[in-house]
Amino acid sequence: MPPTRDPYPYPKYENDDVYLGRERSLSKKVPHSNPPHLAQQEAPWNRLNARATLASARREIFHFDHEAPRDSLDFHLKTTYNQHAEFLRDKNETLYQKETVSDDHGRILKNRVKEPPGPPELQRTPIRVWTNPQKESIHSIHGAVESHHNASTNRGYSRKHDGGFYSV
Q1: Please, what sign has the CA dihedral across residues 118, 100, 98, 107?
Q2: Over the chain, what HEC string results?
Q3: Which tens digit of pLDDT belongs to each residue from 75-110?
Q4: Contacts (Cβ under 8 Å, ≥6 apart) of 63
Q5: Can you tell me the distance from the alpha carbon of 139 to that of 33, in angstroms, rounded to the nearest whole number?
Q6: pTM of the model as a whole
């Protein structure tokens, strides 16, 4: 075998320099003007680094939640399960915490502002009640809901004593 033989098959795989079509050293991309520790003090990165999220604040070493249960007994005592009113519930239903079930627990669980609910739909538009001034017969099928089971079809309601149908 000659020493100039290429052991890699055709087509040749591309690397970063060949894929772009030019070498990196010849590219016209301008490097950043500021180092990262100074660029983080400018907008928009300053907004991101200046304030901690709830999750990152809870990972801090000095974070301590006074309302969190300390052990299994505290966890079971803080549940919403009432054995006198809800006897023989499933095991997972006996461990529901107040934060999971309702919103009146007083704790901030997410970085979201709670918007007050708007007025209900019934308060926005008054309900109109209409009564028919003329009483119609209860035996009339006019105005009834369309269906194959109504009083005008024999098979809808009536059967013989032996289970058969009446013939019309």
Answers
A1: negative
A2: CCCCCCCCCCCCCCCHHHHHCCCHHHCCCCCCCCCHHHHCCCCCHHHHHHCCCHHHHHCCCCCCCCCCCCCHHHHHHCECCCCCCCCCCCCCHHHCEHHHHCCCCCCCCCCCCCCCCCCCHHHHCCCCCCCCCCCCCCCCCCCCCCCCCCCCCHHHHCCCCCCCCCCC
A3: 999 999 998 998 888 999 999 998 888 888 888 888
A4: 57
A5: 89
A6: 0.39
- The residues with which 97 forms a beta bridge, in sequence order, are 79
Question: Contact at 8 Å (CB) between 108 and 100?
Answer: no
The amino acid at residue 147 is: S
Check if the beta carbon of residue 166 is closer than 8 Å to that of residue 154: yes
Measured CA to CA in angstroms, residue 121 lies from 44, 103, 127, 130, 137 at distances of: 41, 22, 10, 20, 35
Q: CA 40 to CA 135: how far, in whole Å?
A: 79
